[in-house]
């Protein structure tokens, strides 16, 4: 290493002042201006989703269409298992290895709670926890699996629940393949409206 | 259907990358408007040509300033504005880790964004570094390209950094952020929403300026998300469409970097060969991951569950197979964002992200991926030279002892950091007491953490309880060494090559723009990678797979 070339021609003060200027301007533009611009665009173009896709029932926010919430009463559809107990302020997955005994134990408990039997196996998405712990959807099969329990709890015909389910389920898309999904919170809101 | 998704997220960025690469080369080398703007911001110093030492010196100076500024922001976030949820100061070793992580374009996160960070910290600290650290990578590749074209003056770091920030990363991020907002990603400075659920309970839903940060973290191979679960979180990635857009955003600038190198050096055929080698490796990686992840979760065997591919740690809305595709792409590049939990991938699938980060050249980080590949190319050239008994040449310059010494040093830093760190932490309670899963999967958690830090990737087997003082300090040091050594040494090589006199190309010259040379690069990447890391693969994911198959 030669010593002379490492010292820049302009002197350290010149370099420092240029660096600081560039960094300050980049912070102003890439953080301040960029975020403000997006904030305004979001507020005007996408007012509902830019503030978190909140859903109202009778003027009261009951949750977000994108965030699963906990349902434990038998009369509601339940979302996928959550490693964080549906904590919308601290999301996360189980991080268990799919080959681990810990996951098998948790799955057995979940299956017992669901009442799954070899003759009536539970759909996998009701047993496997989601990555965020906040997956708002379940598969249509997972919803159908819960229909008998909900019909009993609400004392209505299963056909009526099925009808609500059909109306709420998303159609197949090119991206989802053969899998049809339904948003649990929207489904439960619709259920409350039609099967009191 | 899965196949369609896989092809889509590889083919569209591949097609768009060439025009983008041409634009990047153009704006960095001949941008007149951008040059004026940058001159206005930085002053006359941005027009002074720098040799490799001056360039590297300026790069380090700016990066040290970035480090200092964000350390201050993280230490005093409780007193700064835009803190609607009243977040408090972080523990010092976590600050050191987080700043190192974002300055080095790694974005390893030992914290959970929505729990620890205020809006201000996320935007003006972390997101800011996502812009300028990515720009640092692009700038250094531009310098390398100029050096290899024979210029001892490799451009000006201040000019390149500002140009990459304002004229490459910023417009692309604006575009992607708008697409994401249209897809449902929130963008708000309001604090968490507190709602009364249908069952009458209270749920607190963290929100924030998510779209702004997600856009640049995808584009700049940063990967550090607003929320803990990254792009698996519904607010970061609300639908199958946003998932595809984010997935393509991961790979587009790393791909374009290769073409940029081709246009700047005027050796477009060389770039096409390098691109093809990287693409081949990426395609293999993506399809292997999809295939392996199609297997059901071993823990559910024999239980009354309908048969399904492994969906533990995955979200339904992206569609089947997309977790594996993303996992392969995010670790081929040094992005490190995730849309499913890598700890819950099937044991053998977990090997695919690890392999990507071990090689760290399958497009790699913005700019730096190709800088890493350059080392393998020099080694490939050298091996070919040895085979025919001729002094090896690259871009019409003789590659001699000094360059080879530097290249081997650069090559060995990466495995040394991974193997040394893993050995230390796996053998002592420093790491052994922090794993979530037992046995070889626990070993994989430690191995993954060091691999991710050394590769400046940032993804993790998140079961690891990594917010401890030893983990924070060790991975911070690994990230810093894993970032700056493999940038500075190649610049030194390019500087040394540029000073030599040009040798005329003859019929005896090894041509580096042929398919034959492409297979030489492929060979050096695969064989060197395999020799360095196969034993680790066997101890971790392979042993994990075999022991789970025996149950």
Describe what this molecule looks like in 3D.
The complex is a heterodimer of chains A (196) and B (551). Chain A has 196 residues and is mainly alpha-helical. Chain A is built from 6 helices and 4 strands, in the order H-H-E-E-H-E-H-H-E-H. Chain A folds into 2 domains: 4-48; 53-194, no CATH class. Chain A is elongated, with a radius of gyration of 26 Å. The termini of chain A are far apart. The model of chain A is unreliable at 1-8 (pLDDT under 50). By secondary structure, chain B is mainly α. Chain B has one domain. Chain B has helices at residues 2-30, 32-42, 52-75, 92-103, 113-116, 119-148, 157-182, 210-219, 240-265, 268-293, 322-332, 351-359, 368-388, 401-427, 429-432, 439-454, 469-499, 515-550; strands spanning 193-196, 202-205, 393-394, 397-398. In chain B, strand 3 (393-394) and strand 4 (397-398) form a beta hairpin. Classes of the chains: A mainly alpha (196), B mainly alpha (551).
Low-pLDDT residue intervals, each spanning 5 or more residues of chain A: 1-8
Number of domains of chain B: 1
What is the number of helices of chain A? 6
Oligomer: heterodimer
Query: What fraction of the residues of chain A are assigned to beta strands by DSSP?
Result: 5-15%
Q: How do the strands line up in the largest sheet of chain A?
A: 1-2
Domain unit count of chain A: 2
DSSP, total strands of chain B: 4
Helix content of chain A: 40-55%
> Which whole number gives the mean pLDDT of chain B?
94
Query: How is the main sheet of chain B built?
Result: 2 strands, antiparallel
Spans of chain B of at least 5 consecutive residues whose pLDDT stays below 50 are none
The SSE order of chain B reads: HHHHHHHEEHHHHHHEEHHHHH
* C-alpha geometry of chain A: elongated
Question: What strand line-up does the widest sheet of chain B have?
Answer: 1-2
Taking all Cα atoms into account, the compactness measure Rg of chain B is 23 Å
**Share of β-strand residues of chain B:** under 5%
Terminal Cα separation of chain A, in Å?
Answer: 82 Å
Structural class of chain B: mainly alpha
